[in-house]
């Protein structure tokens, strides 16, 4: 069933497509002054967010902000730096097209993960408002950018093992919060979605890609850039759970340690599938510690039931070895940002 467009009470009502009905329908109304997720009882207007079920109101408006420089552009949004004038806090202002179905779903996932979240390992959510067909999402500004941005500054695109252990510890804490507290699978763990700041904080962002990406990925090679971190069970369209994030984590850490993605570069979707499914489980060469290689081996089992959980990985000797060490992560990040 194709999505229908109806005009009711001066609101554009978007009915769910058949693939959405697999997870429950999601009806959305778009008016000149706001966007409403009907089933969730969540409305984003010009004065901020209102959540009907909990009575939560998060007020932020365009008048509160002084938009400054352009930060970057991703697949789902453009991002600018903005000053929150009432508090003097610098924010990252993410602009999402309200009429783009995929981006609306991304927005809903972000709000579900971040609303009323106090986890220091997720980027902080300050609120959102509606402005001329776009939803403006105000997030914590991470001045170091992403891990992808960081390694581009290095003479060799690798992160030293002690530093990487410190970074991994914080990433695990963020994933653990999503899995254990929010009961949510991130679904898009990759270097681009792990943000850092000059204080040494490492935080997850972009909480979940839409279901439609999974359901159409066999037809579109433009998704290869995101799909290379997907677990084998997701690639094959099988049921998946929290362990799919662990596979993605393992591949990302191997890439950050070696300076290259662990599988041969693929130019097509089919080639990528063949690389992952026919090759042995990836690991690290002999130059790395045995503890590090053991940690990775528990992340990248092709059988998802054999992968360790975030709790088990957080207690792994490789993580514990550096957790109380004198490795100075903020100093290392500062040195990278000065390059």
Topology overview:
Elements: E1 5-8, E2 11-14, H1 18-21, E3 28-31, E4 34-37, E5 42-45, E6 48-51, E7 56-59, E8 65-73, E9 78-84, E10 89-97, H2 101-114, E11 125-131, E12 134-140, E13 145-146, H3 147-152, H4 161-180, E14 194-196, E15 202-204, H5 211-216, H6 224-227, H7 232-235, H8 243-258, H9 269-278, H10 290-299, H11 310-314, H12 317-323, H13 329-337
Antiparallel strand pairs: 1-2, 2-3, 3-4, 4-5, 5-6, 6-7, 8-9, 9-10, 10-12, 11-12, 13-14, 14-15
Helix pairs in contact: 4-8, 4-12, 8-10
Family: Belongs to the protein kinase superfamily. STE Ser/Thr protein kinase family. MAP kinase kinase subfamily.
Domain Protein kinase: 65-319
Pfam families: Pkinase
State the gist of this model.
34% of the residues lie in helices and 22% in strands. It has a 7-stranded antiparallel beta sheet with strand order 1-2-3-4-5-6-7, with no helix packed on it. It is globular and about 60 Å long.
